[in-house]
């Protein structure tokens, strides 16, 4: 059931069964490895899943913007792909950076550091 939509797409390009079969196999393998890479990254970066969910919302909004409001109704200007790509990269990069900063500050607090400065310990006699 996975990648069923790519079969008609490849048939639009070629009728050679070898190319159809191998392209779908490589597409499935590529998506499978990307899934495991994102799963490992999401475990490492605490806020990456929130950034990726925001990217999905932004992509949905871009589809509604470009094909509903811009193309069909003509209410708004067309949003170029480079701007959507820039926002996507900024959101994912921001989620990773925020995860690293929050994780670093929590590690410093647990190790006896507060706000990046060593906590002075006083010994009473």
Task: Give a summary of the structure in a few sentences.
The protein has 125 residues and is mainly alpha-helical. It is 71% helix and 3% strand.
Task: Describe the SSE topology.
Layout: H1 6-11, H2 17-44, H3 48-72, H4 81-110, E1 113-114, E2 117-118
Antiparallel strand pairs: 1-2
Helix pairs in contact: 3-4
What does this structure look like?
The chain is mainly α. The chain has helices spanning 6-11, 17-44, 48-72, 81-110, and strands at residues 113-114, 117-118. Strands 1-2 form a two-stranded antiparallel ribbon. A hairpin with a 2-residue loop joins strand 1 (113-114) and strand 2. Helix 3 (48-72) runs antiparallel to helix 4. It is flat, with a radius of gyration of 23 Å.
Radius of gyration: 23 Å
- Shape designation: flat
Query: How many angstroms separate the termini?
Result: 73 Å
Number of helices: 4
Helix content: over 70%
User: Which series of helices and strands comes N to C?
Assistant: HHHHEE
| Strand ordering within the main sheet | 1-2
- Which consecutive residue ranges, at least 5 long each, have pLDDT under 50? 119-123
Number of strands: 2
Structural class: mainly alpha
Determine the strand fraction and express it as a percent band: under 5%
Major pleated sheet: 2 strands, antiparallel
Name the average pLDDT.
Answer: 79
């Amino acid at each position: 059931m996975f990648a069923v939509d790519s079969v008609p797409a490849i048939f639009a390009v070629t009728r050679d069964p070898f190319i159809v079969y191998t392209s779908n196999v490589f597409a499935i393998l590529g998506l499978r490895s990307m899934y495991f890479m994102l799963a490992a990254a999401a475990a490492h970066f605490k806020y990456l899943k929130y950034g990726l969910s925001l990217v999905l919302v932004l992509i949905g909004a871009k589809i509604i913007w470009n094909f509903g409001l811009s193309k069909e109704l003509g209410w708004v200007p067309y949003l170029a792909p480079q701007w959507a790509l820039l926002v996507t990269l900024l959101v994912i990069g921001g989620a990773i950076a925020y995860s690293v900063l929050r994780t670093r500050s929590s590690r410093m607090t647990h190790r006896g550091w507060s706000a990046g400065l060593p906590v002075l310990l006083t010994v009473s006699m």
